[in-house]
Design goal:
It contains seven helices and three strands, in the order αβαααββααα. It is mainly α and 174 residues long. A three-stranded antiparallel sheet has the order 1-3-2.
């Protein structure tokens, strides 16, 4: 099962599975990706002995190994997607990290924004923000936190259903 899932993940770059299977697959696949960084006959044969799929091995050694060449580890990402309707199993999406274009674009835009900021030091290289602006930001964060707590409490109160004991008490009061 793990070799089939690993071959599918290598070929398709993303699979949907249960969280338990994804965690087991991570321990099975990441050493194979590390071995694929060194393209030799021996490493190809070792990886093929695990995968038993020529197309997956070819994809791993050509496309995937080129993308992860400078990454020291952590080649997969597990994103939880909720529970399955039939048996309430916890589901997730497992993907190869360097093949998600949306997250790569987001990361690139964040690095551009952070490179435009100057470094703040204690020596006065950049003047600190005025105290009024800092307190305004703190107050905004506190307000957002209290709103989140209030909405959570309201949702909890709405979700509580009346129990038969509550119904009996309310009929006694009438």
């Amino acid at each position: 099962m793990l070799s089939n899932m690993a071959a599918s993940l290598i070929v398709h770059k993303r699979i949907f599975t249960t969280t338990a299977k994804a965690k087991a697959l991570r321990g099975y696949l990441e050493p194979l990706i590390s071995k694929a960084k060194s393209d030799s006959t021996h490493s190809r044969r070792v990886v093929f002995s695990y995968l038993q799929d020529k197309e997956a091995v070819k994809e791993l050694f050509t496309v995937v190994a080129d993308k992860v060449a400078d990454r020291p580890g952590g080649y997969t990402r597990i994103l939880k997607t909720g529970n399955r309707l039939g048996d309430n199993a916890e589901m997730c999406m497992m993907e190869l990290v360097d093949f998600n274009e949306l997250m790569l674009e987001e990361k690139a835009s964040k690095s551009k924004k952070s490179s435009t900021k100057s470094k703040r030091t204690r020596r006065g290289g950049k003047k600190a923000a005025p105290a009024a602006e800092a307190t305004d930001k703190v107050e905004e964060v506190k307000a957002e936190a209290t709103e989140a707590v209030d909405t959570a409490e309201e949702a909890k109160e709405e979700s509580k259903a009346e129990t038969p004991a509550d119904n009996a008490e309310s009929s006694d009061e009438k």
